[in-house]
Amino acid sequence: MNKDQLIKTAQAMVARGKGILAADESSGTIKRRFDAIGVESTENNRRDYREMLFRTTQAMRSNISGVILYDETIRQNARDGTPLVRLIGEAGSLPGIKVDKGTTPLSFCPGEVITEGLDGLAGRLQEYGRLGARFAKWRAVIDIADGIPTYSAINTNSNALARYAALCQEHDIVPIVEPEVLMDGDHEIDRCYAVTDWVLKTVFSDLYYQRVVLEGMVLKPNMVISGKKAARRAGPEEVAEKTVRMLKNCVPPAVAGIAFLSGGQDDEEATVHLNLINQLGPLSWPVTFSYGRALQHEPQKLWAGKPENVAAAQCAFAHRSRMNGLAAIGQWKPDLEKAA
Ligand code: 13P
Hints:
This protein is α/β, with parallel strands linked by helices and 340 residues long. 48% of the residues lie in helices and 14% in strands. The chain has helices spanning 3-13, 27-36, 43-54, 57-62, 71-74, 84-90, 121-130, 151-170, 189-209, 236-250, 267-279, 293-303, 310-327, 334-339, and strands spanning 19-22, 64-69, 94-98, 103-105, 113-115, 135-142, 174-181, 218-219, 257-260, 287-291. The longest helix is centred in the middle third of the chain and has 21 residues, at 189-209. 46% of the residues are buried. Bound molecules: 1,3-dihydroxyacetonephosphate (13P). 1,3-dihydroxyacetonephosphate binds next to α12.
């Protein structure tokens, strides 16, 4: 393991004013996104869409430190034959790769899932490293409902996350450790706080036992937030205050950085929250974004699969990236949205 290189890469992923673009939608997920905009999910359409994002030079240079790719994308070439990985590198950003194989029901734990993909992971990491990946992502999913999450689901998922992180570092790839507590239910914010606190404490204990170098990893957590269907949803100040309190209680200062998932928050909501969180600083870590939907929602809609819409979609992607880049340093303002 080259520890210095891992640490340098992890720091670059959370560089000031920059965050990560999660463009690693699995085949099923990207099909659902394309269905919503009336585009057929063919290999070429997926390539065209993602190439459009990676060619948004302004966003990539200024605000996107790294891009999480899917297995298909890391092997794909742009229309002109340039590998997409090279496009990302030439724009000054780092290519990364989703390495988990999605979730499956967890035995004897109704309603809960376990993330798969550990078998053979060492070999896949070697190949992804040769293809240019500098970092990886593994997403564990914890749902909140009556009687769940269970101790079993949290421990099993946490153990897999830590095993994955150790394997990545052994192969000089920075792990993004993503334990996502879903915001799909009707739970109140304090339930999200309690569950996220439990999950992160378990994860950092497992990372310790698996000997993971905290300076060479990035944590990708959910914010502490009310369920989407909650009767009363907490306001942005409460989200920011509780998220910061939870992080301070759970995340060792040695961790290279924190990059939130958006998890179904509206585009601007995800920016407002990140901004308020950073305004509660100084914090022990750089705190930024690793958004999928909250960065791509608008550009996807504008693009709608039509070449004549590319410029408008790139403009929207550059705008959202810049807004989140500002939020990552607590300098976003609402009038910047209106001005655009
Ligand atoms: P969202 O920001 O859409 O939640 O996606 C981030 C991600 O990478 C989930 O694994």
